[in-house]
Each structure stands twice: as C-alpha cells, then as structure tokens.
TrEMBL record:
<feature type="transmembrane region" description="Helical">
    <location>
        <begin position="239"/>
        <end position="260"/>
    </location>
</feature>
<dbReference type="GO" id="GO:0071771">
    <property type="term" value="F:aldehyde oxygenase (deformylating) activity"/>
</dbReference>
<keyword id="KW-0521">NADP</keyword>
<feature type="domain" description="Fatty acid hydroxylase">
    <location>
        <begin position="179"/>
        <end position="319"/>
    </location>
</feature>
<comment type="subunit">
    <text>Homodimer.</text>
</comment>
<dbReference type="GO" id="GO:0005789">
    <property type="term" value="C:endoplasmic reticulum membrane"/>
</dbReference>
<dbReference type="GO" id="GO:0008610">
    <property type="term" value="P:lipid biosynthetic process"/>
</dbReference>
<comment type="similarity">
    <text>Belongs to the sterol desaturase family.</text>
</comment>
<keyword id="KW-0812">Transmembrane</keyword>
<protein>
    <recommendedName>
        <fullName>aldehyde oxygenase (deformylating)</fullName>
        <ecNumber>4.1.99.5</ecNumber>
    </recommendedName>
</protein>
<dbReference type="InterPro" id="IPR050307">
    <property type="entry name" value="Sterol_Desaturase_Related"/>
</dbReference>
<dbReference type="GO" id="GO:0005506">
    <property type="term" value="F:iron ion binding"/>
</dbReference>
<feature type="region of interest" description="Disordered">
    <location>
        <begin position="1"/>
        <end position="36"/>
    </location>
</feature>
<keyword id="KW-0456">Lyase</keyword>
<keyword id="KW-0256">Endoplasmic reticulum</keyword>
<dbReference type="GO" id="GO:0016491">
    <property type="term" value="F:oxidoreductase activity"/>
</dbReference>
<dbReference type="InterPro" id="IPR006694">
    <property type="entry name" value="Fatty_acid_hydroxylase"/>
</dbReference>
C-alpha cells in the first residue's frame, strides 16, 4: 500500500502535540490572552446606552469627516477673497492641527510596527489582530470633537482674549501652560481616571478602552465621548489659562497640542523607548514622565498607574505599581521573557 497517508497523519499529530505543548507554557507577564477582546456592541445598542457613552455620528462611518466641511468652506472663502493661501486664517490652522495631530499618532503607529527595530523592546509581544483594528477603527473621533469645539470657540460670541489678534509666539505662554498642566490637568485627570475605574462608570464608559488586548498608539484616542471630553478638558485648561492671562499664541497651541499627542501615543506605543539608564542617572525623572511599560501595567492590572503623564500623582495617591521600573529596565534591555 501507499505509506504517504500514514506519514502525513503522523506529521499532523506531531505538529498538534507540539502546538499543545507550546500552549501549555507559562504566559508572559504581559500576555494579551489575559485581556480578551469582546465583540463590538451592535450599532443600535446606543438606544439603551448611558449618556455620552456613544458617538452621535457613529452611523456616518467615514462620512463623519464631512462634519469638518464648514471649516473647509471658510478656508476656501478666505482663499478666494485674499487671492492666495490665508496663512493667518484660524480655520486653516484648525484643519492643519487636525491633520498634524492625526499624523503624530500615525507616526508612532508605524514605528511601533517596525518589528525589525522594535521586536526586542515590545512590552506585550503579541501583535494586533483584525478584530482590534475593527474595534478601534474610529479612534480619531476625539480629534473631530476637539476640532469642532475649537471652531465653536473661534466663532463664538465670547472668544478668548488674544484670538482676534493672534500672535505667532509669546514665551510667557509656555511657562503658564506648563504650570497649569502640572497644577490642574494632571491631578484632574488622575482623580477622574480613578473614578472611571469604579462602579458603575467603568462598565458604562471605560471598559471598552480597556478591552483592547495590545495597546497601540491609536488606542490612546479610542473611547467614549465622556472620555474624550475629559481629555479635552485636560488638554484645553493650560491653553485657556495662557490666553486668559494675555500670553496665548499660535505657536503655543501647536507646541502644546502636538506635545500632548506625542506623549500620549508614545505611552501607548507598546515599545519601550526610554532607556533605564536615564532614570538611574536622574532618579527624580521617573516621577515626571511615564513609560510604555508603566502604562501597559495599568492596562493589564487596572488598579494602579492612573496618571496622565506624571507618575508623581500615582506616588501621592498611593497607586504607583512597584513593578514599573524593574520591568521597564528588563524590557528595554530585552531580557524580559516573552512567550
């Protein structure tokens, strides 16, 4: 008889046993299998959803970008009136900021997926599957929302001081924004984030954000309208304060927003990019800037590391995960065992 079928059967059995043996190996401390991704809620489930838990333009799909159409029309009008690019147009800068901020997240997304550069320093070794891609498809809803809020402020009856005659740069604004970020934005985000992890807010608003098995830069923007409004508040307070004190400028808006998005996407990148030697040389720095490992611990364990960017507030609040820096060192060195 022909021995080939038996050989193929034995080969398949050996492969199955080898696969089962691999499946029985102990999981990585950051194994994504511990964070199963739930099926997305049906579109019509928003009818019974709590307030601000679903996006009003969810049914529009990709056509949501037409919500920014009035801004494009304003720029086109000014372009026609001036006979050239309206470089001083506030509407134009709102659209440029929308694009630049989106590209910041896309840059980190591309970098984190360059495995030839990042494989040994990935916090969670697993990749992002198609279900997560679909789940986070509308990650940029918060950018649409913040652009619309910016347009309302620009065209509102009571615009912020300095918007009418917008300066290119005022160095005083940077210091004011930094002080307001540390003094207001960081603690407000910390305590609001802790509240979102309590009942019933976690199940109503924050569980979807934590349902992603592997964080990626786009995960930073994925959430409910309530979470987006919280981010808008923490982002906007330093800018509003600088303008109210007469030190606002166009440069400050760009620097503040792009730095905010850069740090957010870096933390969610799932790639350890800050050397442990920096923290060993300057120990206080570990309380001033978080790391991707620091944030991944929060997403895995959910009871620690609640800060926005500054672990100092976890230290003061008693929620600093004691494993944060040792794991960060191991992952940066590539010595953390991944399966």
């Amino acid at each position: 008889g022909n021995p080939q079928p038996r050989v193929r059967t034995e080969t398949r059995l050996a492969s199955a046993k080898s696969y089962s043996a691999r499946r029985e190996e102990p999981p990585s401390p950051f194994s994504s299998t511990q964070l199963p991704l739930p099926l997305p809620l049906p579109r019509n489930s928003s009818a019974m959803a709590p307030p601000l838990s679903s996006w009003p333009w969810a049914s529009l799909g990709i056509y949501k970008y037409f919500l920014l159409g009035p801004l494009v029309w304003k720029v086109a009008q000014e372009w026609a009136e001036q006979g050239g690019a309206p470089l001083g147009s506030r509407w134009l800068h709102l659209l440029l900021l929308f694009s630049a901020r989106g590209l910041t997240y896309q840059f980190w997304f591309s970098y984190s997926n360059m495995l030839f550069l990042t494989r040994r320093r990935r916090v969670v070794p697993d990749g992002v599957d198609f279900r997560q891609v679909d789940h986070e498809w509308d990650w940029d809803n918060f950018l649409v929302l913040q652009t619309l809020i910016g347009a309302a402020l620009v065209n509102g009856p009571l615009p912020l001081p300095g918007l009418e005659d917008l300066r290119v740069w005022d160095p005083r604004g940077l210091g004011i924004a930094l002080l307001l970020h540390v003094g207001l934005s960081e603690p407000v985000f910390y305590w609001a984030h802790r509240a979102l992890h309590g009942a019933p807010l976690f199940g109503q608003y924050h569980a979807g954000h934590h349902s992603t098995p592997v964080t990626q830069p786009l995960t930073a923007g994925f959430g409910t309208p309530l979470e987006a409004l919280l981010l808008t508040l923490t982002t906007g307070v330093p800018l509003a304060g600088a303008f109210l004190m007469g030190a606002g400028s166009l440069g400050l808006v760009y620097v503040h927003l792009l730095t905010f998005d850069y740090l957010r996407s870096m933390g969610y990148s799932n790639v350890e990019v800050i050397s442990h030697r920096v923290f060993e040389a300057l120990p206080p720095l570990r309380y001033l800037i978080y790391t991707p490992t620091y944030l991944s611990l929060h997403h895995r364990e959910k009871d620690s590391n609640f800060c926005l960017f500054m672990p100092l507030f976890d230290l003061l609040g008693g929620t600093l995960n004691s494993k944060s820096w040792e794991l960060q060192k191991e992952i940066y060195q590539g010595t953390q065992c991944h399966y």
